[in-house]
Structure to design on (537 residues):
């Protein structure tokens, strides 16, 4: 095989996909000293990774499928991730109401076993079974920061006030919230800080093994470019199979199952800060979660998805399903009139032949294709909670090709802005309000929960809100927009109001249009100055 003539231009690892798996792998690899290039055809976290239920959780219902390894790994990860990103992730308590007359149509291994040994239960899920599951949930992964399960008297606890009278008690357990799209961007930022090249709005149109290296062709704003790499990672999410067959052009027996998860966001349905874990008569579960200070997030559905992944929407039937689901628990029925926003994402689950979307495994599969000593690692499935472990697994698969590569490191490293202990959050919030007295509590909390210690970099020397520049509404000022465009690859209004923040819930259509005009002008100014756009091929 002839030697490649441009060895000085060969990167160690080329990653396709700017979702959580791709950015997590890029960060881990860059931190081990590998040279890394990542290409994302749209904005970072534009698809599945910004459309999750936004939880770091073990997956309580996965215990019914006997997926103990997956649950144990996810439970162990919760506190690792809390310590690494206390600004964008924090503990939450989940209330699981129980009533003895509840029935469930469920085809899980647990339900089948129960129907054989206790046929008289006829669809009931006994309290002892739920308590056993929560006992396992408390102890499978170990806990230091998170409190264990408690039993609530709903006639006395405020968590019972929004619920129907038939629910007399509930179990309360711990899991964690995370700003999913910000998690992706922070991984990309840390990867770049460690030497990686991050290319957004840059599509990989071809990749082939030739002359001892991977030749990767991308297409972006500046046209086509050729890249060279020693290893290729396909973290295309819902497009992973398309990358294999149409971009890399190889045959595979492995496939994914596209499962649509839809969510609705409503006006705030209750006043306390805890979440609800609701069990449905169809065997599904649903969360109701305090969201962005003034809203409630409800989800998710599990539907096999047909059609392009990028065209997933929450259908009318799914809206009605979610409204009816939670209305079986809340005193006041939830209707479509309460909905202020919906979103839907397509999860690329590994196709294990399960009979339903609900039963399909949430575990990930890392598949290595090794021809001519040039590895292609395909990433199937995965959960946002286990993205860091998935990245470690990916690097373990690639380790034989990089024998001098150091070992694991991410479990001990903070993400940008998160260089403080979870217990220090209230102290830092207070300091932020003292340093910038023009911030009210909601604005200060938003800045801390999005940017952590980087909030001070955005606010700078401002003595008043006016010092932060043009006001776009809902506390969004030009200083923040400029910072997002400079530091976090934001280019459009949608990037800013739906992924870097969720201020689209608060801004009017005219305010978003004004922001769109501003971002367009800023891009034109940067291109006119000859600097090009950061992160583009």
């Amino acid at each position: 095989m002839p030697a490649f003539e441009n060895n000085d231009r060969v990167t160690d690892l080329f990653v396709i996909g700017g979702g959580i798996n791709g950015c997590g792998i890029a960060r881990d690899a860059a931190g081990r000293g590998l040279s890394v290039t990542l290409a994302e055809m749209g904005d970072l976290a534009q698809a599945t990774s910004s459309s999750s239920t936004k939880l770091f959780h073990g997956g309580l219902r996965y215990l019914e499928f006997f997926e103990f390894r997956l649950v144990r790994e996810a439970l162990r990860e919760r506190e690792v991730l809390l310590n690494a990103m206390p600004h964008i992730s924090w503990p939450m308590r989940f209330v699981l109401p129980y009533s003895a007359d509840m029935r469930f149509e469920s085809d899980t291994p647990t339900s089948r076993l129960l129907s054989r040994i206790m046929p008289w239960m006829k669809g009931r899920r006994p309290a002892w079974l739920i308590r056993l599951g929560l006992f396992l949930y408390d102890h499978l992964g170990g806990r230091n920061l998170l409190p264990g399960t408690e039993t609530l008297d709903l006639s006395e606890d405020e968590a019972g006030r929004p619920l129907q009278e038939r629910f007399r008690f509930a179990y309360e357990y711990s899991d964690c919230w995370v700003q999913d799209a910000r998690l992706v961007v922070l991984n990309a930022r840390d990867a770049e800080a460690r030497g990686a090249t991050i290319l957004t709005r840059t599509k990989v149109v071809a990749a082939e093994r030739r002359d001892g290296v991977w030749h990767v062709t991308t297409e972006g704003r500046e046209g086509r470019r050729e890249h060279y790499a020693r290893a290729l990672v396909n973290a295309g999410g819902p497009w992973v199979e398309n990358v294999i067959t149409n971009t890399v052009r190889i045959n595979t027996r492995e496939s994914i199952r596209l499962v649509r998860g839809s969510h609705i966001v409503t006006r705030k349905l209750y006043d306390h800060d805890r979440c609800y874990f609701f069990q449905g008569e169809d065997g599904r579960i649903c969360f109701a979660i305090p969201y962005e200070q003034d809203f409630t997030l409800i989800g998710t559905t599990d539907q096999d998805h047909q059609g392009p992944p990028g065209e997933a929407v929450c259908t009318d039937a799914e809206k009605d399903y979610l409204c009816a689901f939670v209305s079986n628990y809340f005193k006041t029925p939830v209707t479509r009139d309460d909905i202020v926003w919906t979103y839907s994402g397509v999860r690329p689950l590994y196709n294990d032949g399960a009979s339903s979307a609900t039963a399909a495994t949430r575990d990930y599969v890392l598949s290595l294709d090794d021809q001519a000593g040039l590895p292609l690692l395909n990433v199937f499935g995965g959960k946002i909670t286990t993205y860091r472990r998935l990245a470690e697994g990916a690097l373990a698969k690639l380790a034989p090709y990089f024998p001098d590569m150091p070992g694991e490191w991410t479990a001990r490293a903070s993400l940008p802005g998160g260089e403080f202990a979870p217990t220090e959050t209230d102290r830092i919030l207070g300091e932020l309000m003292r340093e910038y007295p023009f911030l009210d509590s909601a604005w200060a909390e938003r800045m801390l929960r999005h940017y952590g210690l980087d909030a001070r970099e955005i606010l700078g020397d401002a003595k008043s809100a006016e010092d932060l520049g043009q006001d776009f509404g809902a506390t969004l000022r030009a200083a923040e927009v400029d910072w997002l465009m400079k530091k976090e690859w934001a280019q459009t209004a949608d990037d800013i109001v739906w992924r870097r923040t969720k201020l689209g819930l608060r801004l009017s259509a005219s305010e978003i249009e004004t922001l769109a005009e501003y971002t367009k002008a800023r891009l034109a100014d940067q291109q006119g100055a000859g600097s090009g756009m950061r992160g583009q091929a």
Observations:
- The CA atoms of residues 126 and 243 lie 46 Å apart.
- The mean pLDDT is 91.
- The longest strand covers residues 223-234.
- The two ends are 29 Å apart (CA to CA).
